[in-house]
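Pasting as-is:
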Amino acid sequence: MMKRYKLLKDEATADIAFIAYGKDLSELFRNISIAVSNIMVLNAEVNRTKKINFTIHSKSLDLLVVDFINKIVFYKDYKNLLITDSKIQIDKKLNLKCQADCEKIENLKDRFLVDVKAATLHELEIKKEKGLIKCKIVLDV
């Protein structure tokens, strides 16, 4: 089975960095959302009590990654929902459609590890390597 993501220890001192992997953009973005959720909450794959849908459009793939993570943070901060899994569709014009499973934050308080504030453009890198798309991301915590 392919790795979904890998935490990068000692990469950023006040932040958390990781690399997400995917065979295509949809899988990459799904694995980004799983990584962000698992960074915030221990065993983030939980009951999934709510479903949400949202769309995002960005001018570049780099910005789409940042906007997507910041949308996950928005749902955490303002809607009190943690996105635990998602189905992603991305077209050639960088329109992203997301159908996400969520859990209420109050159901997860005893497992909360880190509060992610935002994604950054710092050291953001997306490249194809050995048949996979790799995305290095630094999160502000």
